[in-house]
Amino acid sequence: MRRIVPLIPLLTAVALLAAACTPGPKDKPIADPGADVSGTVEFWHFFTDREATAIDGVVADFQASHPKIKVVVKSGQDDSKMTQAIGGGQGPDVGLSYSTDIVGQFCASGAWLDLGQYLTRDKVSLDGFPQTVKEYTQYKNKRCAMPVLADAYGLYYNKKLFAEAGIAGPPKTLDEFADAAKKLTKRSADGTIQVAGFLPLWGFYENAPSHLGPMVGGQWLKGDGTSAIGGDPAWQTLLKWQKDLVDWYGYDKLEAFRASLGDEYSDANAFQKGQVAMNFDGEYRIAFAKDQAPDLQFGVAPMPTSSPDRYGSGYVTGNVIGISRTAKNPEAAWELIKYLTTDTKAIVKLANTLKNIPTTKDALASPDLHLDPEFKVFVDIFNHPKTSTTPPSSAGPAYQETFQTFCDTWQSGGAADLGKGLSDVDKQVNSLLQLGG
Amino acid sequence: MPHKLRHALTVASFMAPATVGIVVFFLYPLGSAVYFSFTKFDLLSTPEWVGLRNYRHLFDDPFLTRAATNTLWLCVIMVPARMLGGLATAMLLTGLRRGSGIVRTIFYLPALAPPVAATLAFVYLLKPGVGPVNTALAQVGIDGPLWFNSPDWSKPSLVLLCLWAVGDVMVLYLAALLDVPQAQLEAARIDGANAWQRFRAVTLPNIAPVVTFTAVIGVITTLQYFAQAAVAASAASGQATTGAGISSTFGYPEGSTFTYPLWLYVVGFRYGALGYANAMAVVLFLVAFAVSLLLLRRSLKVT
Description:
Chain B: It comes from Dactylosporangium siamense. Chain B: It is found in: Cell membrane. Chain B: The chain crosses the membrane at residues 12-38, 71-94, 106-126, 158-180, 201-227, 273-296. Chain B: Belongs to the binding-protein-dependent transport system permease family. The complex is a heterodimer of chains A (437) and B (303). By secondary structure, chain A is α/β, with parallel strands linked by helices. In chain A, 43% of the residues lie in helices and 13% in strands. Chain A is built from 18 helices and nine strands. Chain A has helices at residues 7-20, 49-65, 79-87, 103-109, 116-121, 131-136, 159-165, 174-184, 209-212, 233-249, 251-259, 285-292, 330-342, 344-354, 361-364, 373-383, 398-411, 418-435; strands spanning 39-44, 69-74, 94-97, 146-158, 186-187, 193-198, 276-282, 298-301, 315-323. In chain A, strands 1, 2, 3, 4, 5, 6, 7, 8 and 9 form a nine-stranded mixed beta sheet that branches. In chain A, β1, α2 (49-65) and β2 form a beta-alpha-beta unit. The longest helix of chain A has 18 residues, at 418-435. Chain A is globular. The relative contact order of chain A is 0.17. By secondary structure, chain B is mainly α. Chain B has a domain at 62-272: Orthogonal Bundle (MetI-like fold). Helix content of chain B is 70%, strand content 1%. In chain B, strands 1-2 form a two-stranded antiparallel sheet. In chain B, α3 (62-94) crosses α8, α5 runs parallel beside α11 and α12 (260-270) packs antiparallel against α13 (274-302). Chain B is flat, with a radius of gyration of 24 Å. The chains are: A alpha/beta (437), B mainly alpha (303).
């Protein structure tokens, strides 16, 4: 003990040093309207390979129209790197993230600047953006992010297997969906699944509660940011429906079947190989399916819903872009963001190259947007008034992943009391909200 | 300059590089971790002092309990398995009369494989249905388990993976076994001691320091077990390993591979609760420290 005592003042000094070296938010005044903007902008994004080349093309267009601004692009940067860079005072001027989960934390902490002042100064109206997109790019009325393309989720179905089973078209209600899943399922003599009409396990490919929640209109968070999951009966409807279907197949049989399937983004994708007849996925699957499984005859439709007024809606999420509080040139950073998020030509060009959904009403209505019939289904889902998203939270995706963990336990039969299980989810989420953000 | 002061300065100057290293790379991070563990901190905002709140929550976190239980399981099973595997392989090699160099290399090579690549290869080998292991088992009429896709088999599958890459431990035992005095072994043999008695009374006491060392290092590395668990879960779940949802596959199947460091990473870097993550890190440090101390004291007593 005597040896440890002299260490205490040293550790205290170190702790004080740590406290002194930690970041604190700073406010930056913005320039007057019409001010001359020039200089260098460092732009970090997560895209790589073909997609990074698409971004480079749009950035080149920006530089052609803004010759006084030089953009230094750094591709393949992920969120945790950006968080650490901003925390360490070395963040990029502009950051583009694939995840709306960071919006709550970045807005609340001031890691990304409030863009409201720039929008007001430059008279950029937010009426040009669909409601869902506006929701996932702000937190508690603070707009620290803008949208750069989006993903919409819907139902993919195998037309050949539908014809063989004598099913006329995609199911629209939960009951129709379960019936179709059963009809489409093929088993061998010992009960092993050979083709699943639908693989209802949570965690399989895109089967996350966030993506399937719009089927029942489940609410995630209350107005004060705390968990609404336990108090919303819609989630119980979804979980009971899903568990009934799991039990019809047999949980162990489903796990064994899932274990034999290929990876989601490989050409062994189970839907593309005809091993799963119906699957939920984003619009990006169209390009994958046409490329990796050219012979697959598939159709797309909105997800089935628990009430007819929600049919046509779905889940939407997207990329977000913002200005770091450590930006060296925030004015030029804003010019780049304004171009990437409001210039119809730039948005349509990116959407056509990346095969994602554009995020402004003008771009959605643009005649230059390549709209094949399948892609149009997703654009319609995107535009549906009841389409929803996962709301930004100061604890990131804690509420989604805590719920997903319970869903895993529930489907395996590890939770007998659904109501209590969901209340425990609320408790855990609310604790994490207190500890984080 | 007085002689004493000169001497002290000389000593200090010789010690300076090590001292700077210890302060910058050990004491400063440790002090910071302890300080942050009493705060609410998200890496982006100014830390806010919250007293013991983070530590209190450790006792009220079902995810932490699950993660700590998994890590404890790995410490109890994986560490002895690696030690026994390493020792058995080393003993096998010391008994070889020919070609021991090549066999040693073959046994050691897996330890050089990057953990991520090795884990991906194991998930593929053990993939139910189409993987070579279950296909081979089916040939002899055995219905193989679901391995990484079964909550009962996922941790044993990780143990298999670590046994495959046991070369690092094996090399340590090999060196220790070759150091056991042949004269003592000969004397024991002449006295009529059988193989087990020779091992128990001669070999084991001689290699005891290496046994302790591998136990301490084994426990410390297993307490930090992260990469293999994360990759195995992600690959076995069939979901993409990139993108926003990476931590949603952690623990697959049914949380059976969710280890303490994984939860630490998730709460710290995904949920922005770095204060709480630091409290978890401090507890992990104390546990590793206590276990090491216990093992070293026991070993000193034995010797």
